[in-house]
Design goal:
alpha/beta, Aspartate Aminotransferase, domain 1, Aspartate Aminotransferase, domain 2, 2 domains, 4-stranded mixed beta sheet, 14 helices, globular, binds pyridoxal-5'-phosphate
Length: 400
């Protein structure tokens, strides 16, 4: 079908809730995406941290095809081997004991909130509130949205559950005050605020949080939907920050493009959910689990993670060169292959999206005027160089 027809049908029949760019992608290969007009793009978004192994990864495709021929679904009344193996592989070498599988980040957030709530109800502590942070993002379903610290996502859906309270991210004084509430059941936070503009927590904030969690006996829920599965150079970013969650949830890159979500719990919380307490039809289905298993096996290898670190360092260093060259670049932030470049208000980062696309680079703005770099973890050095050359060209046009 020709592009104009697809765009027309999209405009007529699909809900217009995304504000899409008028580009129709057909296929991908590694870090490249190709549209129907034969244009190729360097994909520095990777489906918003989803295509962790790039497009059309041979090992992942093989695992998906193999499972497709065997069985796609069998319900959670029964057990399937790929989900058991994915659980075992995910947990190996971590502090977590059990996994709950679902289909997306927001569903994982809901499950994490329910597990923490039920734990407190079972023990009878009377704690029912959740402490979340300003500028955070946890998803679009009602609970995850209520935990999200950005009004722009929430305002149209008020009133939301009011047992989520917010403290400014990286503000130790405010954190101390907020934690001094015996009704707080758990703290929920991202290791790095991705949608918020790649904001990293300070060492002082993390050590105060750890101290206060212990002092007040609160649960810690870490959202690794965007940072998890190798993105920062560790399988889970919390280990790099010295955060020790009771519950961790992840999604996005876990199955390399097949929808999946996972909630991991420590021993203390591993038996909170009993039959009938929670569930989802597609959670842990063999297709998504087989994809997740293929991805996890590859990304858990030390050699793979070491490469993420070295490529991330390379990209960050190259971005720092641009920082020195262009006065309107305010800051470079992030870890591994989740990096942000904040621009000062004289340049609107969102206005650059189309300029990058015109030159064959998918690089989008997030949060507070920040360009967010999320290439596949398999990105090559020459592709980083290619992206940097395009950015330099676009920036050169602004500076001129
Ligand atoms: C940190 C974080 N949590 C949760 C979500 C929600 O995930 P999903 O879009 O799969 O529901 C996102 C999505 O961007 C995210 O970045």
């Amino acid at each position: 079908m020709d592009k104009a027809k697809i765009l027309k049908l999209h405009g007529e029949y699909v809900m217009q809730n995304y504000g899409c760019f008028p580009i129709v992608f057909e296929r991908g290969e590694g870090t490249l995406l190709f549209d129907g007009d034969g244009n190729r793009y360097l994909d520095f978004l990777s489906g918003i941290a989803v295509n962790s192994l790039g497009h059309n990864n041979k090992g992942l495709v093989r695992a998906i095809l193999r499972q497709t021929k065997k069985m796609l679904s069998c319900s959670n009344y029964f057990i399937n081997e790929p989900s058991v193996m994915l659980a075992k592989t995910l947990l190996k070498g971590t502090r977590f004991k059990r996994v709950f599988f679902c289909n997306s980040g927001t569903e994982a957030a809901e499950a994490a909130i329910k597990i923490a709530k039920k734990y407190h109800n079972d023990v009878g502590t009377g704690a029912y509130k959740f402490l979340a942070f300003t500028n955070s993002f946890h998803g679009r379903t009602i609970g995850a949205l209520a935990a999200t610290g950005q009004d722009k996502y929430k305002a149209s859906f008020a009133p939301l559950p009011d047992w989520f309270v917010f403290s400014p991210f990286n503000d130790v004084g405010a954190l101390k005050k907020a934690m001094d509430d015996d009704k707080i059941a758990a703290v929920i936070m991202e290791c790095i605020q991705g949608e918020g503009g790649v904001i990293t927590p300070s060492d002082e904030f993390v050590s105060s949080l750890n101290f206060l969690l212990k002092k007040h006996k609160k649960l810690l829920i870490i959202d690794e939907v965007q940072t998890g599965v190798g993105r920062t150079g560790s399988f889970f970013a919390c280990s790099e920050y010295g955060l020790r969650p009771d519950i961790l949830f992840t999604a996005k890159g876990l199955a390399g493009g097949v929808p999946i979500g996972a909630v991991l719990t420590t021993e203390k919380l591993s038996d909170v959910l009993r039959p009938g307490d929670h569930g989802t039809t597609f959670g842990g289905n063999p297709l998504a689990a087989a994809a997740g298993l293929a991805v996890t096996k590859i990304i858990k290898k030390k050699s793979f993670l070491d490469e993420v670190v070295s490529k991330g360092d390379y990209l960050k260093e190259r971005l720092s060169f641009l920082h020195k060259k262009y006065g309107f670049i305010k800051e470079i932030r992030g870890k591994g292959l989740i990096l942000g470049m904040e621009l000062d208000p004289s340049v609107n980062a969102r206005n650059l999206n189309q300029k990058f696309l015109d030159k064959g680079l998918i690089l989008l703005a997030a949060g507070n005027n920040t360009l967010r770099f999320l290439p596949p973890l398999t990105v090559k050095i020459e592709e980083i160089d290619g992206a940097l050359a395009i950015i330099d060209e676009v920036f050169g046009g602004i500076a001129a």
